[in-house]
Amino acid sequence: MPLALHPLQAARQPLLHAVRTLSPLRRYLHIEPLSSHEIRRRFLDYFAQNNHTIIPSSSVVPHNDTSLLFVNAGMNQFKHVLLGTEAPRHRRVANSQKCIRAGGKHNDLDEVGIDGRHHTYFEMLGNWSFGDYFQQEACTLAYHLLVDVYKLPKSRLYMTYFGGDPEVGLQPDFECREIWRRIGIAESQIIPRGMDDNFWAMGEEGPCGPCTEIHYSMDGSAEKLLEVWNLVFMQFNRTRRGILEPLTVKHVDTGMGLERLVAVLQDRQSNYDTDLFLPLLQKIPELAGTPPYQSKFGDDDHEGLFTAYRILADHARMCTVAIADGMLPDKRGAPYVLRKVLRRAALTWSNKLHSDPLLWAQLVPTIVQSLGPAYPEIAEREAVIQATITKEIEDFKGIVDKGTKAFGKIWQKLENKMVLPADKMYELYRQFGVPEEVIFGLARGRNMGCDAKGFYLLMDQERVKSREGLARKKEQVAQ
Ligand code: SER
What we know:
This protein has 17 helices and eleven strands. It is of the alpha/beta class. It folds into three domains: about 5-265, BirA Bifunctional Protein, domain 2 (2-Layer Sandwich); about 275-400, no CATH class; about 415-479, no CATH class. The strands form two sheets. Strands 1, 2, 3, 4, 5, 6, 7, 8 and 9 form a nine-stranded mixed beta sheet that branches. Strand 6 and strand 7 form a beta hairpin. The longest helix is centred in the last third of the chain and has 32 residues, at about 380-415.
């Protein structure tokens, strides 16, 4: 008879199971997956051995750049070096950069939890050459790291290169194709792609250039490719008018998402099934007293419970990192995005886990354990992070209580309880001061849709009216 498991042990089962379940090939070869710490460390050691200076991650709060809400790529801190307006301190650099993609050009907020790949917070491993090596060495360095250090089979690697664009007057990057051939990549695994995929730009303006992407085949075929590394050959500055001005010096800027690389090396289909997320996905149901995590997506995740766990784990990492870097939730700009993400997590916790969202703050120590060794600022500020999240959620609970009461009254009088009409949303927003994300959350909690379009229209009308009112007042004062 099997022994009964203590509830806590039972909750741990899927995690242990996930870590132990290796692919048949790995089991046969007795290869234990590398931990995320080891994967990050090997990347940095490799580039140090190849004469790169390892520099710390910059803060996720952009320094001296109003075009960004958050640092969203490893190259952000080198923007001026790439444009030639700042001298590089080193010619070869590598690092592991904390990045946030929530708001702005690269925004992944709405994809989080739905698939196994998108995150608001992620780490980008990168190496740079500032006027030093170019395509040949960049491709060779990347190839040897993947094949010789991480031991990925060459047959699983697919390379894309820039296929040119006559409209902008750019030729295909045959040089890059040739380099991959010489390295020994099979012809069928070198693929040309257009502007959208293989031309990387930081934003509407700024440094940009054609890129080559390294993809890993998840099943050995060309059908299931996962992009792991982007090697950008920086050679233009895109001006405000959209003109590509050649840079006087060419540079290399590469970026590889740590979470994806870890998923590949730990042989997982989803980034969430790696040691970067599993401790959090285990802790969430332990705290809330809900069923243990299962790696289910879309229709397989009937109640959306496991999607909720993924959102909660992702958002906890993002908020922890942003607060560690000195950001506080507030009314405008990036601090408002932080507030929105925090509130979204709190609502997800109460609506999906039916538990007190203050418990969500207790994920901070688990994140500190995972990220603290690589980013000491996170460990140093643990108490501040937890206190900030707790305070913000307490305040938010007050707002939600007020909003819930007002919503309850409105809901009782509604004839159609499928969709919350725009005027009722507006009433909650204007008369009761309920923030829009709370209105959406309250409706979701009752399985209702929202007339969001109508609501935004009413908000726009109000904005126009108040602008007109302001203009009239100014005119009166001037007369
Ligand atoms: N800047 C490129 C990217 O973010 C490569 O680092 O993908």
